[in-house]
Amino acid sequence: MASGAERVIPEIKLIDDDGEPLETPWHLVSIAILLDCVTYYLQPRTDYFVGGNMFLYYSLTQARKRDLRGPDFFFVDHFDGTRPRRWWAVWEEDGRYPDVILELLSESTAKIDLTVKKDLYEQTFHTHEYFCCDPDTLQLKGWRLGKQGRYQAIHPDENGRLACEKLGLWIGMSTGSFLHAHGTFPRFYDAHGRLVPTHAEAEKQRADHFEAEVARLKSRSSSKRRTNGRGGQSGQVKWSTNRHTTAGRSR
Q1: Is the pTM of this model over 0.85?
Q2: pLDDT profile of the chain (251 residues), mean per 10
Q3: Which fold would CATH assign to domain 25-196?
Q4: Of 110, 113, 164, 224, which shows the fewest CB atoms inside 10 Å?
């Protein structure tokens, strides 16, 4: 029998899809890149969870009203990341909220992302860092909780990148191709300013490095053979000359 101190959570049917597609292919690719880069950078760690375009339930009232909130990207540190999830329900996750959230703005969501969601993430979630990326201007904005528990603007560095303390990375923009799409997408950079690669990019870098090393060794081996060949011919001429001189003296 449950004690009076125990909280009984009524059964509520949670959904993981509302049938609404992402605004544009750019949004889809951006989410995929962010997720891929974080999982590559943090491997082999499993004590974190990273989600994208996933519904986040934070109260029973919100769940009942279907007041859906689905951050485009969020990160929860020091938490079991091995269990697959269809959604993130705070009461199922020991009361944990995201440590980092990033929203990809669009014409239909920009106002809410910069006002309603910003207030929610600050005052209810107490999410340490919140970022927004505008696909039209390719500008980034970010906020971090200050000492008073209120968001303070994160100022960009000389490259226009914003520091993400919880991930130990920087967020900036980069132009390239991913998933057969070419464009400028939000990307992570390490403390040395190097682009954090996706798994596929890292594999290509390893393959390119291997091919370059093989080519270098082949070139070095070929150069040695040419040098040895020239040295051998020179030795033969010298020996022939010495033999001729010796024979002359014996006569």
Answers
A1: no
A2: 44 69 86 97 97 90 81 96 92 96 95 96 97 97 96 97 98 93 96 96 88 82 72 49 44 38
A3: tt1808, chain A (3.90.1570)
A4: 224
